[in-house]
Amino acid sequence: MKFLSEFQDPDSARRILDEIRRTVTKPWVIMEICGGQTHAIVRSGIDRLLPSQIELVHGPGCPVCVTPLELIDKAIAIASRPNVIFASFGDMLRVPGSRKDLFVVKSEGGDVRVVYSPLDAVRIARAHPDKQVVFFAVGFETTAPGNAMAVVQAERERLTNFSLLVSHVLVPPAMQALLRSPLNRVQAYLAAGHVCTVMGWKQYEPISSQFRVPIVVTGFEPIDLLAGILAAVRQLESSRASVENQYARAVNREGNAVAQETVDRVFEIADRKWRGIGVIPQSGLCFRPEFASFDAERRFVVHEIEVAEPAECISGLILQGLKKPHECSAFGARCTPQTPLGATMVSSEGACAAYYSFQRNRSISSH
Amino acid sequence: MMHDLIGRLFRWAFDNPTLNRMDDQAVLALDSNRIAVSTDSFVIDPLFFPGGDIGELAVYGTVNDVAMCGAKPLYLTAGFIIEEGFSLSDLQTIVVSMRDAAHACGVTIVTGDTKVVNKGKGDKLFINTTGIGIIGHDFVISGSNLQPDDVIILSGSIAEHGIAVLSKREGLTFETSIVSDAAPLHELVQVMIAAGGNGIHAMRDPTRGGVAATLNELASSSHVGIRVIEKAVPVQSAVASACGLLGLDPLHVANEGKLIAAVSPASADRVLAAMRAHPRGANAAIIGSVTAADPGRVQLQTILGSWRILDMPVGEQLPRIC
Description:
Helix content of chain A: 25-40%
CATH topology of the largest domain in chain B: Phosphoribosyl-aminoimidazole Synthetase, Chain A, domain 2
Largest interface: A-B, 48 and 30 residues
Number of helices of chain B: 9
Shape of chain A: globular
CATH class of the largest domain in chain B: Alpha Beta
CATH architecture of the largest domain in chain B: Alpha-Beta Complex
Helix content of chain B: 25-40%
CATH architecture of the largest domain in chain A: 3-Layer(aba) Sandwich
Largest sheet of chain A: 6 strands, mixed
Low-confidence stretches of chain B: none
Distance between the termini of chain B: 51 Å
Radius of gyration of chain A: 21 Å
CATH superfamily of the largest domain in chain B: PurM-like C-terminal domain
Order of helices and strands of chain A: HEHHEHHEHEHEHEHEHHEHEHEEHHHH
Shape of chain B: globular
Structural class of chain A: alpha/beta
Oligomer: heterodimer
Number of strands of chain B: 13
Number of domains of chain A: 2
Number of domains of chain B: 2
Largest sheet of chain B: 7 strands, mixed
Low-confidence stretches of chain A: 363-367
Radius of gyration of chain B: 20 Å
Strand content of chain B: 15-25%
């Protein structure tokens, strides 16, 4: 099948791996931004096929992981109300709040529904005018256009029973925050292909030149990831730092203008708290004042709940690439996908959950 | 009134001398004193899905569970819990499909029960079936019987049932031509036993949790390790695409017409050839082997050649954000 099998081909993979081995002469630290990439790397075992000089560290691009605990608690408070239909992407349902998760709310009688698109939530609102329909708008630049579109459509239809609980974060401010940190180890980035299909790559040009860091826009299949790593290594080895596009079959420099305009119409840039990292200035989206009536936080007056993360959890260090999951004393013992202590174990795309699923026995080498 | 209609519907559809006696129990005479019994409850949503419905599934599911120890399934019981107001014409369609499925498997539905519960106290229709079969061979086929060096055979391409059902679930509708693989496996099992005899150590149908869950169960019950080669596992390209789109691992998605067998190395070729000659096993493949090392653990060689853990899925697989 086109666009899938050719990007999983073992022979191509071997050729790129050989080329990486020939190119690398020094140790390099490369961060893949996106949790989907982390998952694919660990699942296909790419991290263990690379020469030992290349260290992959796993970035904060997992929307489930970085959604603050307070927001999960707000979602649970809203979803527990009797006249509410709470719609969400599936993977938010299992994320534990401070006392329970959305699955428990559902089992207690709350009307919690899994949807694939925020437009499905608009459809539910249309079909149930007597209920308040709230969509959990979580994610990066990838999900923001659909969520903005849902608001535009609800406004057009004058639906007064539809709102969004927003937790939108943006990739470039997080990349800059990591590079500015005195503890930073990252020398090159693999930028998230999906985000770039929406936003293009022009946003990364100033980051690459200011911090002298190679940024390679990379896809999600094994061959994409290996090609992205090779491109990053070539730049590092020749002391170049520019933005390169490995994911040319889906991404161009400008991105999707219609999607960007729709986001811009509904949302504006604001400070956002990232779970495990803290507040990053200008790193997220909130409603523009003219769309504030669609803000579920206003509509339902969910009071601010301050929740402390378990002290033992080092997910902040992991999201910044300073520690690896198996270097945590709680990993696999007191912290598992069933009983997560923090951000990176709660989602299948979190680095800890990926290591737990695929490599918790790190002694597996070769057979 | 509704009860009468339903009673008549069942007697008309499942018509056979044992059921027609209308006693509180079925009396059965069996040709063997090694009996296999299995029970399963079916609560699937939606009731109708591409390639089948709950009625067919309730027959095949239990027939397959009985067959996995090598038994020949003969009789079924059927219990129905019907939510008040459920469409009688849908019920009729489902009952007819159960009748046809039972006929195709050569099993008789010999006793049953019906309860109608108040609206809101059930979800349209639940079906429980219990299957009874007889065992004609004198060796043990069991999930706790895997032995080091056994070959792991999978009877065909995976994940079709789970994806077909998901494609029709409310709110998740997407266009696909993928149909459920729901099918009875008892004939394939008999063909395998004829070819492999006591070289067949274990069989199990990888339903909920998919191939990954079943392999983990087998490794754990038999205290052995299992190694699987990812590229040897057959997956239809449309299913692979749908899984990619939904963020699901085909190895974690349910099947309803496939089996996994652990077979001695000496009989593997014969068993595989016999399976491939049968329509239910035409795409059968050797996907891995059993080791004495790493007991309880399933490891997978990725398409790139490195090894990783193949885990039990945690809960239901959920579609991802992006």
